Amino acid sequence: MTKVALLDYGVGNLFSVANALSVSGAQVTITNNPKDIEAADKIMLPGVGAMRDSMYHMQACGVDIAVKKALLTKPVMAICVGMQALFDYSTEGGRVSCLGVVAGSVERFDESWMQNSELIKIPHVGWNAVHTDSDHVLWQGCNDEYFYFTHSYYCKPDREDVRNQGLITANCEYGQSFCASLIKDNIFATQFHPEKSHRAGLRLLHNFINWKV
Q1: What pLDDT shows up at residue 27?
Q2: Cα–Cα distances in Å, from 108 out to 32, 39, 43, 132, 154?
Q3: Active site residue 80
Q4: Is the pTM of this model over 0.90?
Q5: What is d(CA 176, CA 41) in angstroms, rounded to the nearest whole number?
């Protein structure tokens, strides 16, 4: 059974993620202990809340270092604020430096954007279809499915930065098309919450658990 270290840095939603991973076939350990992280086959970086607080707690318990170290040897999946934390910086609460694993920024939705002839509501909460042009194994059986979102900020990869060479994205429409998920080398990240997305979310987690990098 695949061992997944679910990283604990003081954010909520850990137990629902742990339960979804277990249902999808993983052996889950909630931890920020370096020994547990080293022993795991794969890493999960969850996250809810404000970026400044999230980065503070990551750095305070060493999760930022653990993620970068894990990326050298094993698959890592990041969810919601966990995905945003992978970027260079977030504009939430000013400018917050993040992990710098993916080139780009995290931006607030623009209140002037329109969806179905109406101004979008912020935060973006609810079910939306996610589409990718890739046939990557992680998206098998999941492409064009509906996933659950709850966020006010979205990730904006820098397509011209060499660090993003080979980046695979999946997009969602909310006023405009935005990056709802990405795959880069052994990183898989989703802005939406697979653990709250019923059948499609569990299939996505199952694909990650069985992903051979």
Answers
A1: 97
A2: 29, 37, 27, 22, 6
A3: yes
A4: yes
A5: 37
The pairing of strands 2-7 and 26-31 is parallel
Beta bridge mates, 106: 90, 155
List 57, 124, 151, 193, catalytic entry: 193
Q: Measured between alpha carbons, how far is 184 from 207 in angstroms, rounded to an integer? A: 16
Catalytic residue among 57, 80, 145, 155: 80
Positions of the chain with pLDDT lower than 70, given as ranges? none
Provide CB contacts within 8 A for 175, sequence distance 6+. Answer: 109, 110, 113, 114, 115, 120
Chain position carrying tokens 């939603």: 13
The one catalytic residue among 92, 151, 195, 206: 195
**Alpha carbon distance 54, 194 (integer Å):** 20
32 in Cβ contact with 58 (< 8 Å): no
Q: Note the pLDDT of residue 107.
A: 98
The angle at the Cα of 11, spanning 95 to 143, to the nearest 5 degrees, equals: 85
pLDDT at position 180, please? Answer: 98
State the pLDDT at residue 213.
84
Calculate ∠ Cα 78-84-90, nearest 5°. Answer: 160
The DSSP 8-state label assigned to residue 85 in this structure reads T
Tell me the one-letter amino acid at 60: A
